[in-house]
Design goal:
This protein is an alpha/beta fold. It is built from 25 helices and 16 strands. Strands 1, 3, 4, 5, 8, 10, 11, 12 and 13 form a nine-stranded mixed sheet that branches. Strands 14-15-16 form a three-stranded antiparallel sheet, with no helix packed on it. Strands 2-9 form a two-stranded antiparallel sheet. GO terms for molecular function: transferase activity.
Length: 641
């Protein structure tokens, strides 16, 4: 007999569940009942833990489970069935818990963090931009190094514990018999398929209604609060599909009133420069805060109005999508990101149109070209080229990121080097959050506020970045004043900065982020960023009020003396009725608000036309192209990215 080598691992026992020594005898009631009760109990504890982590409120979690036939109890049954099915696949009782528990608890933790910092729950589509999150990790680590170290240690420890538990479990738990595995699959698969079928929020389900699972897709925070994290997350899986508006057809598109506007440009085509400044906002609006000197004097003197951002604290690409296309996020699923999910073929934009009129359409961003999928999206938008970190010359940094001054230098160089008129779209990077204290070693401002030292220094870091952005605009204006070529400059912030505790300590917000749904006056306070549209021929445009990014093409082209069937024709007519078109709010030029408009039985036909045109050009048959986007007809070639 061969001797067993000293130190060799003990062999894994291969006894079956019908081994009398294990008590897992098929025909005996107790083991079956014991397995079922244990699985349901494990599922209940896991679902409770998930909800507790996501909500951050123990008693709120208890309330979620108090009444029977609520989504919480349904979720427990679903989790139990998933574990039963996985046990059958893995071949050992309850081993599925080692997969389901770490996965769901990790998702719950990420969901809580996203809700804390951005105000939105975790959506399935968030994983489309996981690479962006990883790219921001150095900034997050710099702001909270000890938190990062603890998370890293917890991750390593958790993985080690999981590996140890997995190996130990396989040594001590019998292999399921073929009959036991088939029985588990026969129970779990049909019931899980049934639950999947009733989760389609677009169709009515009597069973779902009886279980009191009500999809609240128009208010995702309430959706997650009412249905629980797991079910709400599952119901959002189909959000990548955008259903056609009711009645969509060529006939309905043809029935939309055609504007009596043709595409035209002046004899001397003006250069058009658009700067979307990262998180640019007026920090002096914070209650009880004094910042000296004024961090944004140029914008304050030239301000044309406000940009009503559809986002808060992040999701830059969604503001960018509206500003370049003249389309609206209001007609897309909540939580979706068009740059990641929907822009997969040539899509009409300002770049498409202006390039067709002889412009050189260029984009600049001192970050990486894959961030927000910009490289592929800009190609589909019709830009001639996109200069990013990979193709720009080395750019001077201010703080940890490329400076606004260096980006301004590049804008001026690009415009001066072009014989053709240019449409230049630039996205800054310097003032991207988080705003760790002492970000800049040589601050030129001071902050006086009755808040903690950490919050005050964080606000100072943000104010320094805002001042640099404002100075960049002043340089562009001074440069443009000396040019012979007509030049239009548009400058705006994409969203309010993610200042977190600063908002709470100053009393600007109750929480770190603004709520998605609130009265119109509060929404304007929490979503308006400064907007400047300026011409070296006529000076600043004035008295625009708050406008959605989708109306930016109208105001820019009108200032430039350019007309277009959609951008100045259709949007111009719509602008006479509404200046803000948001998912939760319509706002007229007179300031009359229509909250929750999408849930009303009767929707303004003009808004419906807006939605129909957008769907037709992004997802439909492009029936509207000849009349509204003539520059796109017979010129569509899909990219191969």
């Amino acid at each position: 007999m061969a001797r067993i080598r000293k130190g060799a691992a003990k062999p894994v026992p291969q006894f079956l569940e019908d081994d009398p020594s294990t008590g897992y005898l098929p025909g005996r009631t107790w083991p079956t009942v014991r397995y079922g009760l244990t699985t349901v109990l494990a599922a209940a504890l896991l679902v409770f833990a998930v909800e507790w982590i996501v909500r951050g409120d123990f008693f709120g979690t208890v309330d979620f489970f108090l009444q029977p036939f609520k989504p919480g109890w349904t979720t427990i049954i679903v989790f139990a069935l998933v574990m039963v099915g996985l046990d059958a696949v893995l071949g050992r009782s309850h081993q599925s818990l080692m997969i389901v528990a770490p996965l769901t608890l990790a998702l719950a933790f990420v969901g809580h963090q996203k809700s804390h910092y951005l105000g939105d729950p975790l959506y399935p589509t968030d994983f489309l931009f996981a690479r962006q999150i990883m790219a921001l990790m150095p900034l997050l680590v710099r702001e909270r190094p000890w938190t990062a170290i603890m998370l890293a240690a917890g991750l390593v420890g958790g993985l080690a514990l999981l590996v140890y538990g997995w190996r130990t479990w396989r040594r001590r738990v019998p292999i399921l018999s073929r009959k036991g595995r088939l029985a588990r699959l026969a129970l779990a698969v049909p019931l899980l398929a049934f639950f999947v079928s009733i989760m389609d929020y677009a169709t009515f389900s009597w069973t779902r209604d009886r279980l009191q699972i009500i999809p609240i897709m128009w208010d995702q925070k309430e959706n997650y609060a009412s249905n629980g994290f797991a079910l709400a997350f599952a119901m959002n899986v189909p959000m990548a599909h955008v259903p056609a508006p009711p009645g969509y057809s060529q006939k309905t598109i043809d029935a939309i009133q055609r504007p009596d506007v043709a595409a035209s440009v002046p004899g001397v085509k003006p250069d058009i420069i658009v700067v979307m400044s990262e998180s640019f906002w007026d920090p002096t609006k914070l209650p009880g805060v004094s910042i000296k000197p004024d961090p944004i004097p140029t914008v304050r003197a030239l301000r044309s109005g406000s940009m009503f951002s559809p986002e808060f604290g992040g999701m830059t690409a969604n503001i960018e999508f509206e500003a370049l296309t003249g389309f609206s996020n209001a007609f897309l699923p909540a939580g979706s990101i068009p740059y990641q999910q929907y822009v997969r073929t040539p899509t009409p934009s300002l770049a498409t149109f202006l390039k067709s009129e002889g412009y050189r359409a260029r984009a600049i961003h001192p970050g990486t070209n894959w961030f927000w999928n910009r490289g592929a999206v800009y190609a589909d938008f019709g830009f001639n080229d996109f200069r990013s970190e990979e193709t720009l010359p080395p750019m001077e940094k201010r703080g940890p990121l490329a400076s606004d001054a260096a980006m301004t230098d590049e804008i001026i160089r690009e415009a001066d080097a072009s014989d053709d008129p240019v449409f230049l779209f630039a996205v800054s990077l310097q003032n991207h959050g988080p705003y760790e204290p002492y970000r800049y070693y040589n601050p030129t401002h001071s902050v006086d506020a009755p808040i903690s030292s950490w919050a005050r220094e964080s606000l100072l870091s943000y104010a320094e970045g805002s001042a640099d952005a404002d100075h960049g605009l002043q340089r562009l204006i001074d440069w443009a004043k000396k040019r012979e070529r007509p030049t239009i400059i548009a400058f705006f912030g994409d969203h309010l900065p993610p200042l977190g505790p600063v908002y709470v300590e100053t009393g600007f917000l109750k929480d770190n982020v603004a709520p998605r749904k609130e009265p119109a006056d509060a929404a304007l306070e929490h979503h308006d960023t400064p907007l400047v549209i300026w011409s070296n021929r006529s000076g600043p445009v004035e008295n625009l009020g708050a406008v959605s990014p989708a109306f930016l093409p109208y105001h820019i082209l009108t200032t430039a003396g350019i007309t277009h069937p959609y951008y100045t024709g259709f949007l111009g007519a719509l602008r006479e009725r509404y200046r803000v078109v948001d998912r939760n709010l319509l706002l007229s030029p007179a300031g009359e608000a229509t909250p929750d408009w999408a849930r009303q039985k009767q929707i303004d036909p003009k808004i419906n036309d807006f939605r129909l045109i957008q769907y037709d050009m992004m997802f439909g048959k492009r029936h509207a192209a000849p009349d509204f986007f003539p520059e796109t007809v017979d010129k569509l070639v899909a990219h191969t990215s």
